Amino acid sequence: MLKIVFGFIFAFSVVQYTPTVMAKAKHSKKSKKKKKNVDNEITNARMRQASGAKKKWSFSGGLGYYGGSLTKPFGAQRINLYDPTGDPSITALSSSVGVRYRINPNSSISLGLGLTYYEPLRVFQGSIDDAGEALKDYKLKNIILSSPSLSWSYYGKVFGRQQSFSLSLSVPTNVRAKSYGSIASVGLSHSVIFNPKKKISVGVYTGFGYSFLKKCENNQCQDSKGENVTHAKALSQQTKMSAYVTPFFEYAITPKYSFRTVFSWFDFETRYSRPGGCADSRESGTPEPPRADCTTWIEEAGDYSETAKWQSSPTRTQSVGLGIAYSRDIYIYPNFQFNIKNIKPELSNVAVSVSFSL
Length: 358
Fold this sequence. Notes:
It is a single chain. 15% of the residues lie in helices and 44% in strands. By secondary structure, the protein is mainly beta. The protein has a single domain (37-272, 307-357), classed as monomeric porin ompg (Porin, Beta Barrel). The protein is globular, with a radius of gyration of 28 Å.
């Protein structure tokens, strides 16, 4: 009888123990398959924010003010850093919004567009027409829809480094790009961050862009005034391919604030060229190779070559600012930019950008 009782207890114990062991085994497997968190791989505040919210569906966007010089930050004109003595640009308030679908913790797809409002402080500055003769061509009285885009991105640690990869497709909507025959563009970008010291981050942005262009013939291209753009003039402004290598440096003052500077020194693009075409007013109309700021065109100077050649940007610009990690999904960057060959307050631009995810 004792054997029967002990046998029953043993059998009951085995029955009770087996599910417990199985449950523990399942729990152990689940714990090993712990949910992946991109924040464990990306610790840089700016890159972490750029990776987007961790939800399956989320919104991402940005707001930026591109102001005037350091001496007139709220003025109507914005310094042309690529030619400080040439025609000025114009201040603007830009915004972007997009919908993001997270494929997995590291990669996502985004669809977005932007809006740009030129001379946002015009109520205090007068009309755009008062900003200068060079700005009249803008005719920007309303908000302008910026290029809609579709992109795929990846953020995570690759070979032990914080890295990001992005592939994008955009369609131009602004008059300037369309007037020179731009149809669409694709871009590939990458960034990597190294941490030689605990508070120091050194990184590099690299990118490549390719534009799909049409020939501006038979009245296919018009400028903001509705006037036809000639094929020669369009070629002078077209950039079929572009590339950049942009180093940056960050020093973490606190977990929330960091000093940040970006070196836009190595920009390259393909340009069409011809012996003449741009009349340089400083030389009494002597033809010279076309420039981006050229306003006087000599069609008889010769035809543009149909073969574009790679050129490096003659201008080196840099931005310096304070990075503010307001939260994991909000990053603020007040900064100023300057041409390293003309470092003067009156020849530098101010800006502030806010990036967010919801």
